[in-house]
Design brief:
The protein is mostly helical. The chain has 22 helices and 3 strands. The chain has a 3-stranded antiparallel β-sheet, covered by helices on one side.
Length: 451
């Protein structure tokens, strides 16, 4: 057998080609979707792709770079990812810190580093990969006992440090992505009580937006009183239970009466608070928001265009597709540019309008298949490092997909989350490519125990 054939066999050995082909298919769909919303008839199609002036031609260029990067990762040694995991995480944090010095503001977010030639790098996108590797490295250590509070705190800090920097960069959407790592930590032994507390806090925040403050306070008091009454026997055995119930009640009332209003009026921008309130069918009074009082221009902008304009146009575009859609390049809403940011955050609208409900179901089915394949891959790993990393990939993808799709149909506030491998953007595309192909590389060496 020739030497080249032997080398090819070694390179492809163990590679999960199902994930690779799903990646290639989604990559092609992404370019097609951007093409649908931007192509102008009458020009030379090949020339428009090669000119590099349109977003779909740039996305094709980004895709070529990503393919080269994917091949490079497949040729790399899996041990490199464990050896340099902490170093790469540190490098990612340094890049995020660098945005405060040399960063470029885009759409109100100073989270981009200009690279020249009109290209920009968003470190928060790349840092998701480094965080997944660092968390996997930490949990795979023999001395890490994740049942102990100290290890849980360290794992939480690894996940939340980039999230904190993203919030400072005014990138709330990307900051929320890092919370998906807690699902990974739950798989590795994080007590379910912490997740219950997290979901309970989210439910309390939503209830604060929907229910009148006084009525909610009364309801919480009734729940606390009922709990005290029905736990009489238990309280005789556990004398600290009464104090615990009272403390939890006081915290809940304090959160709904003081903490939540303070965050919406002093931390969030007026448009952010408005979008979150509109998600639950409520109107937000911007006169209470300090940022709105400091910026009269925001009020003028809101008067010209409603804060839920994006979602309204997105719903119209998706709804107009009906069951089977209007057809390729026949969408009136997306091609008419009625939907803002339709090539990035709202790219899902192009699929809904062109291919209808049927097309959306098939498209989301591809994502579901990819996620199930990754989870199945995770469970086959001998190494804790590979398993944790695989679950991190699945959770990051799941969060992006669910939030982006729910955002376009009005079930979630607009927070600037891209649709993996579909939305336009070099940083996002490169980030998801590296994320997936490191997994493919680790899975190819699944019999190896990495630490």
């Amino acid at each position: 057998m020739p030497t080249s054939t032997k080398n090819n066999k070694v390179i492809s050995q163990g590679v999960d080609w199902v994930i690779v082909w799903l990646y290639a298919l989604l990559l092609g769909i992404g370019i097609l979707c951007i093409f649908m919303v931007e192509y102008k008839p009458g020009g030379n199609l090949l020339q428009s792709f090669l000119a590099g002036k349109t977003n779909y031609s740039k996305q094709l260029m980004f895709s070529s770079i990503c393919v080269v990067m994917a091949v490079f990762i497949l040729l790399a040694d899996s041990k490199l990812f464990t050896a340099f995991a902490n170093l790469m995480y540190t490098f990612g944090i340094v890049l995020m810190l660098a945005t405060f010095v040399i960063g470029k503001s885009i759409n109100g977010s100073k989270s981009w580093i200009p690279l020249g030639g009109g290209f920009n790098l968003q470190p928060a996108e790349i840092c998701k990969i480094f965080t997944a590797l660092a968390l996997a490295k930490f949990l795979a250590r023999q001395e890490t006992d994740f049942t102990k509070l100290r290890s849980q705190l360290i794992g939480g800090c690894i996940a939340l440090a980039p999230a904190f920097l993203s919030i400072l960069q005014n990138e709330t959407g990307l900051a929320l992505v890092y919370f998906s790592f807690f699902i990974v930590m739950y798989r590795e032994g994080l007590p379910p009580g912490l997740l219950i507390i997290g979901f309970s806090f989210g439910a309390l925040v939503i209830a604060t937006l929907v229910v009148s403050p006084n009525i909610l306070a009364i309801a919480l008091t009734i729940i606390a009183g009922a709990t005290i009454y029905f736990t009489k026997r238990v309280r005789k055995r556990n004398k600290n239970l009464l104090a615990t119930i009272i403390i939890v009640w006081a915290i809940c009332v304090g959160v709904q009466r003081f903490a939540v209003p303070y965050i919406f009026n002093n931390v969030f921008q007026c448009y952010q608070s408005t979008r979150i309130f509109s998600m639950v069918g409520k109107d937000y009074d911007c006169s209470q928001n300090k940022s709105a009082l400091r910026r009269v221009a925001d009020k003028e902008k809101a008067a010209k265009k409603p804060d839920d304009y994006n979602v309204r146009q997105s719903k119209i575009a998706i709804g107009s597709g009906g069951l089977i859609g209007k057809g390729f390049l026949k969408g009136t809403q997306t091609r008419g540019k009625y939907v803002p940011e339709q090539h990035t955050d709202f790219i899902f609208t192009s699929i809904g309008e062109a291919f209808g409900l049927a097309g959306c179901v098939v498209f989301l089915g591809l994502y579901l298949f990819l996620l199930l394949r990754i989870i199945n891959t995770a469970e086959k790993q001998r190494s804790i490092f590979s398993r944790v990393y695989a679950y991190s990939v699945a959770c990051i993808l799941f969060f992006h997909i669910v939030v982006n799709v729910c955002m376009t149909i009005g079930l979630f506030p607009i927070i600037g989350i891209t649709l993996p491998l579909i939305s336009y953007g070099g940083s996002s595309l490169l980030g998801f490519t590296i994320l997936l192909f490191i997994l493919v590389r680790l899975d190819a060496d699944r019999q190896m125990v990495l630490r």
